[in-house]
Amino acid sequence: MVKYLLKKSYLRKSFKEVNFKDLWNSNGVFTTMWIYGKPQKILFFKSHINNLINSLKVYKIYNKEIKKKIIELIKKNIDKNKKYNHLLRIAFDKKYFSISFRDKIKLGSNFQLKLVNYKRIEPEYKNLKYKFILKKLSALNVRNTDIALCKKGMIFETGTSNLVFIKKEKIYSPKVGFYKGINFKYFKKKINKIYFKDIFLKDLNYFDEIILIGSGKGVTSVKNIPEINWKRKSIKVYKKFKNIYKKAISSERII
Questions:
Q1: What is the mean pLDDT of the chain?
Q2: Distance between CA 104 and CA 87 in Å, rounded?
Q3: pLDDT tens digits, 127-166
Q4: Residue 255 DSSP code
Q5: Exposure string for 2-40, b = 16+ CB within 10 A, e = fewer
């Protein structure tokens, strides 16, 4: 069960506070950021906000005051006396703006994927059409399992994160059909090369490592995929990713 520290909603046009609306499955967009420490830092804060603004424009929710109000309300709702390790979610539809803080779950060491026949609606955007995904995740122990979204024999992303696939230390990503998250884009800049290609389920045993990248999962190595008997053969690239991630965490600016 998700444990919330704070849940608030506001009317989008006036930013007057109203009863909380989670906005899942409405016609809108969201972003999830990791807030941590005291004084508080938000990992890749500027990139998350700018990306959200771009999505608001695509979904015709944007107005010229909205970025200023988002930052103002985030800062207003942060408790300066608290040490955080939470996920901060910002969501918009045409009527409402919602903000929430929930506990960042500590993941188990034996992390696995469960294959699910599903592809997100308009996957290139972080939209709110998550009803199916949330239903599937609610039936799992999310400390050690995520769902891998697959369609027509290809694998795209998980219910929460991007995926990269490693063979002989070469890094591969699906070519299309998934959302390129802020954490994923950060790693793309930091590492030498990501090869974009269609990743077929029938070829997964070709790969030595599978790694999740995202705000909630951070950098997580997949140990196995029971349905196809895939098992991790190495954690060499995972360790490199983890070191890059640690440097980003320590160098992030205070909010």
A1: 96
A2: 6
A3: 999 999 999 999 999 999 999 999 999 999 999 999 999 9
A4: -
A5: eeebeebbbebeeeeeeebbbbeebebbbbbbbbbeeeb
d(CA 253, CA 112): 33
Residue 1: pLDDT band with limits 50, 70, 90: low
One-letter amino acid at 117 equals: N
Looking at residue 192, its pLDDT comes to 79
**Tokens at residue 80, please?**
């300066």
Domains of the chain: 4-103 (3.30.470.10), 112-250 (3.20.10.10)
Tokens of 97: 């703006």
What is the CA 168 to chain-centroid distance, rounded?
Answer: 26
- Local structure of 119: helix, strand or coil: coil
Q: Which residues does 152 contact at the CB level (< 8 Å), separation at least 6?
A: none
